[in-house]
Amino acid sequence: AALLWSTILLGCSCGPGSPRVGAAPLLAATYVLDDADGLGREFDGIGAVSGGGATSRLLVNYQEPYRSQILDYLFKPNFGASLHILKVEIGGDAQSTDGTEPSHMHYENDENYFRGYEWWLMKEAKKRNPKIKLIGLPWAFPGWIGKGENWPYDYPDITAYYIVSWILGAKQYHDLDIDYIGIWNERAFSSKYIKLLRYTLDKHGLEQVRIIASDRLWEPISFVMLIDSELHGVVDVIGAHYPGTKTVQNALLTGKKLWSSEDYSTFNNDVGAGCWARILNQNYVNGNMTSTIAWNLVASYYEQLPFGRCGLMTAQEPWSGHYKVESPIWITAHTTQFTQPGWSYLQVDGHLEGGGSFVALTDGLGNLTIIIETMSHNHSKCIRPPLLNFSVIPQRATFYLRGSFYMVETLQVWHSRLDFESGSSSLFQQLHPVNVWKGRFSLNLNVDEVYTLTTLKTGRKCVYPEPPPPQPFPSSYKDDFNIRNPPFSEAPNFADQTGVFEYFVNASDPGDHVFTLRQVVVQRPITWVSDADQTISVIGNFKWVNMTVTCDIYIEKPRDGGVFIAGRVDNGGIYVRRTKGVFFWVFADGTYRVTGDLAGKEVLMKGLSGVRDNAWHTLTLNIQGNSASGLLNGYLLWENVTVSKPKNGWAALGTRSFEFAQFDNFHIE
């Protein structure tokens, strides 16, 4: 009924509507949109982050046509989210929130521009929208860059060379032009390094690549730029994270473009959509920010990892093909389908009298887009920062179009209403065009709504048939890693949480173990969070209780090397160091251990196994109820170990330290 009422309102001339009997009159206010005295700041686009980390991990394993459908919802113009910007992690072999992403240079003398999935994702985005802007940002760095120190700025020339190599590799191997490059996600910046990075970019003919700093807070970067003219000259964009729609005076004084270069990070239900709608407008209205970038693009990681379902949409079941186009996708479309980078904001205050906000943008060629949001406080809370109280009430807004917009006669109307009572939200619906009479039109605005009014007629809400229904991870799962030319460097569904596990061709093996999975990080990286001291990759269904995990293992490190298989693994991501479970370890010195934790502190059983390095062995871990047992090469090695907690969790494999080791014929029941 509410939708019908607004449709009727919009279809009629825009004089005052007859008030309902006994209803309090709506708060009425007028707003002027005029370009006669010039325009506001240039709009730089709306985007999302893949990475920081491993947030797109499961996406690549989807079968067609579902994988392409997901990509269309994200990137295809005038289809779904129609994103203007894709920001990716420059993998650094270290934990960066929900997993590790592989570096293009694991070691000093190593270069490989086909690892991971961000190259593939950038190409898929460009295929759909050739104009999409690309950003690269490191969260972590391989250990060799710091020469043993957990710091990337001691040898800034090495770090700059490493980052520029990634940009050159993107072009050479994938024909991708990187538009912007960042410094170090949410960590300290070095003015010396930023200047050296600019010099190195220019030396390699990459003058067009712009620098964003510092992907943390507005300060101290803004203040330092004001007192260091050379730094001011090389930083193109000041990027702040989770600014709460506010900026600071020093940032404005620099005269630079201001971006919310990471924002949102909120569970993708309708409250998440409300958060996103509010900040997309208010980052400019309150903070002069001309780009807002969501973390993250698509929730394609196991949901029980940190920040589950904090993507614009959800695609975490490649084994079933199920995915969900969440409401933030259609909130994005309200802005992205009717603007482009290079448009300009109009100079307006942007605050609505009854609460909420509006922005207006133009391409300078006569087109006008107005986006209005009336999100209430409790229905638009983002994960951070805390949101001060405010109120929004139903209201009547009258807009006067002046300057070059005076001749506009009709505006197309797109509408969303987040319904928190019945749960039946209406998302991105096209309503009747609104007639503009002598440069004037009025609109009755309810609470928790988004309107786009635009001269553009290109908007579309495209919908694919429903994907397959959700299914749990298969309860019987095998991978023998026998793939000669894998499309990706990592085996499907394994989610690396410390270290990097890659397909490996074992050229020296006589037969059974030519194609394996190998852990390849052999030096602790320059970390972003506290990676474990062991490497680990998890897989499966977090709800699993009873399971048998079998895997062939090959320890490469003599004397103190070691590997494990595990079940009921209860943690990962930024919390990987506190991971518990049932871990069955064997070591190159011929001993074994059973522990209740990844750190190996909680020893449940230990003894001799006879295992040696540089030989294949088969480990089997069986967990039933409160009891666990282990087999080596098919023979019982230990039994009757009592396991009380955790009650459930993933399966996993990994190594004792940052060391080479191989795995083959992985099997879970």
From TrEMBL:
It comes from the Eukaryota. It catalyses: a D-galactosylceramide + H2O = an N-acyl-sphingoid base + D-galactose; beta-D-galactosyl-(1<->1)-sphing-4-enine + H2O = sphing-4-enine + D-galactose. GO terms for molecular function: galactosylceramidase activity. Gene3D superfamilies: Aldolase class I, Exo-inulinase, domain 1, Glycosidases. The keyword Disulfide bond applies. The active site is at E186, E262. Its main location: other. One of its GO terms (cellular component) is membrane. Residues 1-23 form the signal peptide. Pfam families: Glyco_hydro_59, Glyco_hydro_59_C, Glyco_hydro_59M. Its EC number is 3.2.1.46. Residues 496-669 form the Glycosyl hydrolase family 59 C-terminal lectin domain. It is an enzyme of class 3 (hydrolase). Residues 345-459 form the Glycosyl hydrolase family 59 central domain. It is found in: Lysosome. Keywords: Disulfide bond, Glycoprotein, Glycosidase, Hydrolase, Lipid degradation, Lipid metabolism, Lysosome, Signal, Sphingolipid metabolism. Transmembrane segments: none annotated. GO terms for biological process: galactosylceramide catabolic process. Residues 43-337 form the Glycosyl hydrolase family 59 catalytic domain. The keyword Cell membrane does not apply. Belongs to the glycosyl hydrolase 59 family. This is Galactocerebrosidase. The gene is Galc.
